[in-house]
């Protein structure tokens, strides 16, 4: 059943972490449904949405039983598997006509396993990991990397429009997970390259603010450099995307390259820096804290030594 | 003597390669001078500018003798040294009141050597390497990284406004050269990271066009990715910035890090890829051809193998 | 029951690949047992040992039922798990008094899983991966990296003496697997460093035979350099340890470093070269073929270009 | 004039640092000469050799004037150039019949420059950098990497036999310098790989002494691992070959690879670790202190964290 302002299907949302909360809130505001059911492992996280008009349910299975289309946004592959395949999980209630859209960021194997179970039970499946963190989620500006059943992708178009600025259908199940990894692996390497530039600027007696201005005016100008530059200058890293998550994605993208015999020497070098930053105790900081790996023990930092 | 529409000093331009030709042409159009003198080792490169109103002179020394402020834009450190310090070179005619602005991209040592000679003869010196290649030069959209005598930087403000969209004064002689290296080293590493992402997308069965769209919508969106992405897809690399020049800058930025004990593992890994691309015979291609190093022997390319 | 010439326990051997065949043959010659039972998935591989006095059995379970101590040497974690935990597997017949020594090279998780099952059934468990390939196996010159039940390690001392030149007891289950990975990860990086030196010697107009002589006389002289050097010169790589296995170990050692936040930038760079060599189709060659990754596309090789 | 017990030429030695002192002392003991002249910038370093029978001279020029063959062992390229080409230097006294053997470790350009000057003055030239540090120098166990005039190499055979266990003639001037770089670059990368293995052993709860035993028994066993292993365990690095010198050689070997378009990703990654160790203040420690770069900030060290 297509999600439209006219059709008004019942939809459900599983998982109300930072991202899920924001995405479900946008869906709720859209009015493109008869009812929005919500579920979270810790039930108290449902309160805000229920206060705004959503209806809490007791399990993923109940959500599937009552809704036409169910969205999931879980924190990691383990949680995604548990919600999908565990007791009273999604698959236990799937039957022909039901549809599950898993927007969690998981590895391809996890997604493939969930897809197989949903399809075996007669349902349709779509993976839809997103590119973007908290602020784009709140602003409905995510990029949705969908793959799986194309008819379900089409049915979700209006919902995706509410959550994101663009949704792409990438092919078979797994393609979304792979695209997410390629994007994040590239991002981790670019962030580390940028951090090295900033460290060297400081070490060589240049003003980092001058470097940021030059970069901002040139071919490398990007929202990431504009956003993370000041964090590096102040060496303060409130987490938008945690370093530990970025490092996990580096590990996974390297594993993907490994499986395909694709050398990725720059991403591999960047991963070692993320590992070092983790070892420095920065796992819960923003991934921009990889800068600390670049300057640690190198006499860098705002004081400079050049 | 400050360059202004009112003061109308006599200015001179030494070096009419691709960049110098475009920069001098913009100066000529500006009218901020009494006369624009031009000189090039191969005199025929002066013809177009002379036809447009410039006056050719016979040597750098003659340019200095007749002009208030002389600009140089030479192809490499060797040419910059020869024009500045050689027979009938800039320094042979410098005396108090004269000023030399060397906009060539040279290493810090070269710039320091030229500065010392100009100053010893009583002149003022400014280094002003630029960020940006042919098109920004033509469009007057360069970024000028100036360092040396600040009074001369101020005197050149109007000229820099004609050539660039922004000029920064970075400090003592050498700071411009270092900033240029830091920027280009960062650029080389980012380009290589991007190339790895594109190679892995293809190898893993994704459409590179989808990756480019995702990157273009997200935090990494940049003019460089927008511009070079299609080059990687088509594997065609008409040179805007030659790979051999980028690799030279990687070597120099690593030498700078080496001198300052600043580890740069990602830039170092990227440099090895540029070396590999050079060995593949791509030195004269655009630096985006580092993509070929990422896919060479990895079974990548548009056909994919996933 | 301790394996001694006097005690003469019944022992069993599971898995008769290249390594297992050689190790079991050495045991057979030792006479330190009442009977040597043998089993292999493809039963015909038992023929040679049976001809020499061993007794073939029909399943791992039968081997356990009839023997005091059972040794396993399987090709990979999947085979090790199947033989241990599968139908008619080792664990199905384990009871107090039985002992299983798994000498396969497996990851720590696999070994831990098998240990838990053997112990839960009342048996003793020892992991004993070996360092050394075909020739040391034949010559009884392996190094045995044992961990698990120390009493079982002691009981096997005479058997290990027959198979290896040294056996070490490293601690709890998993320590043997980790030691194997650390050793092989180090080996892969050293091999790649050596390959780079050989490639650069050739590229810079030196005789590789001169480099080998210099290395052989100095601090780096090692059996590996002595053995692999001529392979690199002739660019011929008959497999003693397959490149695909070495690359797998690089992947696993990096995963171990990843789990422990231990940066390993040199091993990571080496891994990318092994991946490249795999992509060049050299997976089934000896791991020394990583040299081809060093020279591929770099104009290297015996012809040189310097 | 060939150096033999019979011919007894007059020979001279320039440069009495740690290495030169030991090498000249071995020459002195050999008796293969009529007289051994010695010179050092700080004349007091001649005292011990003079007491043992050598004759001090006032300048390199005087040494050349009075000796048939002059050996130099200077600390770095700058000193080598000064002694060869400076006032009262070697070249000022060279004439047909004279010969200069420069055993300093210098870059190819420096050696080529000295060779050209010696030959232009009618003399013969040989470069002879050595592989091996203080102890092999004292024990007469160096490896001599000679290149230049082959007749001079032959004339020095007896002298080289006294100083080293092997001398190789590698070809034209520059080949000795290149071989030295290739050997040292390989050594630096192998040392760093070994350091990573030791760091990971500790981090993963293994005994480093067990790893050293395993390595010592296997294919990687080498004098370097035997010698440096205990230094890593005790984290004490009395200098046999200074880290700052090793890092300089890494820089030079990478520059050589750069000039020849030979990618050296593992050596490049190792160089970044040496740079990091230098930044940690370990430049004057033994090059084995690169281990500190592997464990710094990674929570490693003898206490372990696994």
TrEMBL record, chains A, B, C, D:
Pfam families linked to this entry: NAD_binding_11, NAD_binding_2
Keyword Ribosomal protein listed: no
Catalytic residues as annotated in Swiss-Prot or TrEMBL: 180
Domain 3-hydroxyisobutyrate dehydrogenase-like NAD-binding: 174-292
Start and end residues of each 6-phosphogluconate dehydrogenase NADP-binding domain: 10-169
Keywords linked to the UniProt accession: NAD, Oxidoreductase
Highest taxon above the source species: Eukaryota
Gene Ontology molecular-function annotations: NAD binding; NADP binding; oxidoreductase activity
InterPro entries: 6-PGluconate_DH-like_C_sf, 6PGD_dom2, 6PGDH_NADP-bd, HIBADH-like_NADP-bd, HIBADH-related, HIBADH-related_NP60_sf, NAD(P)-bd_dom_sf
Alphabetized SUPFAM superfamilies for the sequence: 6-phosphogluconate dehydrogenase C-terminal domain-like, NAD(P)-binding Rossmann-fold domains
UniProt-listed PANTHER family: CYTOKINE-LIKE NUCLEAR FACTOR N-PAC, OXIDOREDUCTASE GLYR1-RELATED
Entry similarity comment: Belongs to the HIBADH-related family. NP60 subfamily.
Protein name, UniProt field: 3-hydroxyisobutyrate dehydrogenase
